[in-house]
């Protein structure tokens, strides 16, 4: 049992090392192998505890950025999320009894990550194995089956390695001398298959360049505060910071230091005052957009009635002012709204910091901005497959991620979010432009390579040349079909294992 606990903990630690900021992507299949080694041959109850331990060791450091909100929230979140891994491990103990179990185990892993992204309170799809593979040999699978297929491929690779170590070939009736080569060959098969999984990713079809590009201005204005007090004490500082940085970009263009942009992107919450209700905020934004002279995407939190709000991506024309908009669909629980409000507010004083409750939008973020229709995605939403996919299907190109990571500056959240953008770029054959209040703002090519990025906690701006692609990948076209196929495969294996176990029990009773 001690050896199993050590293997489970080592597996969780290796999984963490695969994620940014360490980014040792090869540690992901290694971590899976160790976790499988800890579970193989155990009963479901013991497997559940081992899975829980592996998840705790993985998620505590991987989600360390949650500590900004409070250590109690961090402990609660990790404790709840680890339950999904425990349930998956218990089911895995059953499918390990079947032939070809690396396939069924990998399907269960995909199902576990799907469930985590669904419940509770809207799900939490952070720290999926695929998000450790922003630039790896497994990345191309995103263009074929999206994030779930990347998770499946990494898990399958690790499980096959574990199979080679754990499963002894069946004894042969032949002589020991003649049986040894055959046994060695059978043991080598899963190793060869494990190596083949990442190599086969090179065969995934990827659309090419279409010969069209635009210049995109990216503005990162920085904020005065830190942690839960990101906006500081003086109103309009965030607004002025981003307006001034936009003006600095305009001046750099006039001086010939930067090419003229076709559009400009500002981050989520680039104005801390509602421009619909405040004439002062409206004039500051209008002045800066007029100065840069091109359509600009502004991030604002706007009032909806007297007691609600929306996190909005708002197009702003240098002549006509505010226009079309996209309202964030996936809201951050306890950050933008309070689930079970009456109970939570009564028990938890910090929940009152949410203030006015946000309401979600109900339409994808395809927004006409200058010469293109961009795909607007807000911060937390980049982790949700369906939200990004529907925005691309609606015509969004490039994908634009407006984000406000100021509360989590210099934690492991900004690099983890950038890794998600790398995968989304490959998944949908779209460039991804990220504008962040404090960093990391970046431009990711459709091949998933970071072409430019900012440092954190500084004001910065740039104009980047971004390809405009309209061809869809297989993953964009088929959507969630591969995910459902993999989950059904895992669930069917559990059913087969239970049926097989029942038949064996009936046989034993009959023999008795």
UniProtKB/TrEMBL annotation:
Q: Which GO terms describe its molecular function?
A: N-acyltransferase activity
GO CC term, one of those recorded? plasma membrane
Cell membrane keyword on record = yes
Pathway per its UniProt entry is: Protein modification; lipoprotein biosynthesis (N-acyl transfer)
Q: Where in the cell is it found?
A: Cell membrane
Membrane topology summary? Multi-pass membrane protein
Q: From what superkingdom does this record's organism come? A: Bacteria
| PROSITE patterns assigned | CN_HYDROLASE (PS50263)
Keywords assigned: Acyltransferase, Cell membrane, Lipoprotein, Membrane, Transferase, Transmembrane, Transmembrane helix
The similarity comment for this entry is: Belongs to the CN hydrolase family. Apolipoprotein N-acyltransferase subfamily.
Q: What is this protein called?
A: Apolipoprotein N-acyltransferase
Species assigned in the record: Nonomuraea zeae
